[in-house]
Amino acid sequence: MMARRSNKAAPGARETVPARELRLRLYAGAHIAMGPGKADLLEAIMRCGSISAAGRELGISYKRCWDMVETMNQCFRQSLVITAAGGSHGGGAVVTEYGHTVLREFRAMERAAEIAITEPMRALRMRLRARRKSQAGAR
Q1: Judging by DSSP bridges, how do beta strands 92-95 and 81-84 pair with one another?
Q2: DSSP string of 54-101?
Q3: What angle do CA 39, 40, 44 make, to 5 degrees?
Q4: What is the mean pLDDT of the chain?
């Protein structure tokens, strides 16, 4: 299970659309250069200091995490993550300054989009049928 940012608004703050209803992605050709999962991975690498530990924290396989890092590094003009080989002293991964900038800009874009669609989404939700009890637990 992937860790997600909380969308609970602070008292007096404006409520926004839940993250699960809005998933922005930045494409570079056919590849997703940045999206919510990749942003979560960058944040986990920053906390954990390694790709494998970040994967464990997020519940994602090491291979999947490595593939995501490779895609990000290939899509952007500069690497977002640099790695050190493992061994007796262990390896590690660091999000570069460029990676911090990309992450900050992506998260700002997410927040702006969430705010922008809050009212239209609320109006559109009002047009949905009420969920029946048998549907409440199903996804």
Answers
A1: antiparallel
A2: HHHHHT--HHHHHHHHHHHHHHSSS-SEEEE--STT--EEEE-HHHHH
A3: 120
A4: 86
105 token code pair: 């800009």
For residue 28, list its beta bridge partners: 31
Q: Could you read off the pLDDT of 33-47 as tens digits, one per residue?
A: 999 999 999 999 999
43 touches 103 (CB < 8 A): yes
Tokens describing residue 92: 């590690």
The helix (H) or strand (E) run that includes residue 4 is none
DSSP 3-state assignment of 1? coil
Domains of the chain with CATH codes: 25-128 (1.10.10.10)
3 in Cβ contact with 44 (< 8 Å): yes
pLDDT tens for 89-98 read 667 999 999 9
d(CA 24, CA 47): 23
Quick one: 90 exposed, middle or buried, by C-beta within 10 A (0-12, 13-18, 19+)?
Answer: exposed
How far separated are the first and last CA of the chain, in Å rounded? 16
